[in-house]
Amino acid sequence: MKILILGIDGYIGWPLALRLIARGHEVSGADSFFTRERVREVNSDSITPIVSMEDRLQKLYQLWKKKIEFHKGDVSDPEFVYDLIKKIKPDAIVHLAEQRSAPYSMLGLKQATDTLTKNMIGTLNLVYAMKDIIPESHLLKLGTMGEYGTPNIDIPEGFFEIEYKDRKDFLPFPKFAGSWYHWSKVHDTNNLMFANKLWNLRITDVMQGVVYGTRTKEIEETDLYTRFDIDEVWGTALNRFCTQAVLDEPITPYGKGFQRRGFLSLEDSISCLTIGLEKPPEHGEYRVFNQFDEHYSVNELAEITSSTARDILNKRGKIEHVENPRIEKEEHYYNPEHSKLKALGYERKRALKEEIILMLKDIEKFKGKADNLRGVIKPKTVWKNSPGLDK
Amino acid sequence: MKILILGIDGYIGWPLALRLIARGHEVSGADSFFTRERVREVNSDSITPIVSMEDRLQKLYQLWKKKIEFHKGDVSDPEFVYDLIKKIKPDAIVHLAEQRSAPYSMLGLKQATDTLTKNMIGTLNLVYAMKDIIPESHLLKLGTMGEYGTPNIDIPEGFFEIEYKDRKDFLPFPKFAGSWYHWSKVHDTNNLMFANKLWNLRITDVMQGVVYGTRTKEIEETDLYTRFDIDEVWGTALNRFCTQAVLDEPITPYGKGFQRRGFLSLEDSISCLTIGLEKPPEHGEYRVFNQFDEHYSVNELAEITSSTARDILNKRGKIEHVENPRIEKEEHYYNPEHSKLKALGYERKRALKEEIILMLKDIEKFKGKADNLRGVIKPKTVWKNSPGLDK
Asked: Which of A86, B27, B242, B372 holds its CA 20 to 30 A away from the CA of A64?
């Protein structure tokens, strides 16, 4: 299958490219290197050693004799998107090329505006280019479980039958996101539902949980690492917790820590995305996957990280709750459905504890780099203080 | 009360300014004249004679000895918004300054992008400026009944109690809009709910039905007309039907014509908005009004327009269904709740037929201008053909 990965340089994009190549697909990709640049803006960096795209591709060719056609550019530029799609004419497009950090979107009005508009424009450019050039191809788009918020009822996979005043309909589940970033994904979801209605495009909208981990089997085989961010803006919860444990810094759940979210390992994320690509939707189908393995509270993750770090690395594993910089319920019901990917063949590869052991060992390898970044791990970006115009 | 009207030059903005002045409020306004310019782009124009803002304000001063402070600018420019709000420090802001045409948003990728992003950015600038400068003021924001789409269940006013798998929550009603314009309003609604959660802003989100009519009592008193658009891009259904009847052109419902929508007269729209302003929400309250008087099918409106035009103007009143350029259900259930404004004192001023008589007579006065615009009334903008990048 000819697959185009937008955002191929990212945490998910790169290991997905390796997986798809390993499975015999013809892979091309694009990236604007937005994340590499923005991570440096907050004085942070990937602690895993990531080489340039040029070097990644060169080494991949040396190892596997496989080529990836790469184009540098930004999907919020319609000319770039049209040219790219005309050139590649992919069977499937994986759209990972969005600003992906909730804290970044809360840094201020400028970042809020950029996140909300550029994420939206990229997706809009894509659906127009698809209907104009490759109307039968499949768009697999990364959304987030955070689109749903934390309602007091079960969360279905996208749509549900609703009964109100003795009448019924099958409708999209009402969303309530918790940051401008998460809302940008809700807006995308809404725009995608409409694009599907307009032009019968095949779309998979992936509501992904929080991803953790340093490796996939192809990263192990090639030593071609993907990025691993540990700072408060770009790092996700469990990745930060493991880094704190290795550095013998306190593990810092935000607030009470009973916030419960869906999580999955990088390995499992890549498996799920691959299933979504290899089992595409029908002509005219818009489908939603809730893509996570299990849900955990932040406290549960902090505790398992702490005990594992004590056991295998002889660390202190201290847990220290910090004031919650976000606006979110700290105790709530949480029960999202997630059966569609299992029905298509998804099975968890490694249990949480097993993956945490691997992560701790990997982070230990890059401890020097993590050590230099101690100062950027604890939260500084406070949701309600998001500054307006600087003047 | 000190009230700032953004979009004061528009169909709703101008008569609202007159009403608020007449009721003793201190009114200021801003506009970019976007609609005046864009209407000319489709070779159309208001058939009512609208003078420049300068002349409007001058004549208003001559007649009533009242001043309106006016600033030209675009709310998608954060500097303009911050400067304006610092200068005026209003008790309430009425936000009407958005691209307001569904067909315009479907003209192509460029217009889709502009509508989705600029509408969103304007609202975002406003909520940031409010929380920074006037956190206790009230934002009254124009949305549309079109945000809800046409579900097979009753439509509540914004939120509803939902039961799913034996659990309950009170959640936003799931939206399903029918054009990029309507989606831009859904995105605004979502962003406003979040801004309210972040900063406890007082917000009234008005889901307005389709407005029709040429006059309010202040327009009658001053002869200071508001704009009246009759073309397929900028004119609304009943306004177009009445114009077609006066020109003895066929009245053209789209498709089967059983599409049912909420409608209200311009006079009633202005009354509702005034109630919303004079009875503001509490600190921290986000409230939704479904603002319309009655719902009618497009066929019902075509028929009452036809019979009235036959009776009072001796016109033919021919009805000719045309292919539906939109993507919408042509037969559907429709029962939106609309009790909140009534509870606050809203009462209809004129019945539909009475208002149609006035409109037909007014349009007859400007028949010469309408006659020149015959060519732009019938639909040309076809939703599913919305073109992508021109190249």
From this structure: A86
Write the residue in B82, B153, B183 that is nearest to A190 by C-beta.
B183
Decide: residue A40, CB within 10 A, 0-12 exposed, 13-18 middle, 19+ buried.
exposed
Asked if ipTM goes beyond 0.90, one says yes
pLDDT in tens, A349-371: 989 999 999 999 999 999 999 99
Nearest-neighbour CA in chain B from A177: distance (Å)? 8
B384 Cβ under 8 Å from any chain A Cβ: yes
Render pLDDT for A307-341 as a digit per residue (tens, 0 to 9). 999 999 999 999 999 999 999 999 999 999 999 99
CATH numeric code, A2-379:
3.40.50.720
Per-residue pLDDT for B357 more than 70?
yes
pLDDT, tens digit (0-9, with 9 covering 90-100), for B159-199: 999 999 999 999 999 999 999 999 999 999 999 999 999 99
Q: Which CATH number fits domain B2-384: 3.30.470.20, 3.40.50.720, 3.40.50.300, 3.90.1560.10?
A: 3.40.50.720
What is the tens place of the pLDDT at every residue in A118-132?
A: 999 999 999 999 999
Task: Indicate if A181 belongs to the active site.
Answer: yes
Rg (CA), chain B: 20
Taking contacts as CB-CB distances below 8 angstroms, the residues of chain A near B386 are 128, 198
Question: Which helix H or strand E contains B169, and what residues bound it?
Answer: strand B167-172
User: Using the beta-carbon criterion (under 8 Å), do B167 and A173 form an inter-chain contact?
Assistant: no
CA A116 to the chain's CA centroid? 16
Contacts of A386 in chain B (CB under 8 A): 128, 198
Q: Is A346 a catalytic residue?
A: no
Strands of the sheet containing A294-297, edge to edge, are: A210-212, A260-265, A294-297
Which residues on B lie below 8 Å from A178 (Cβ)? 194
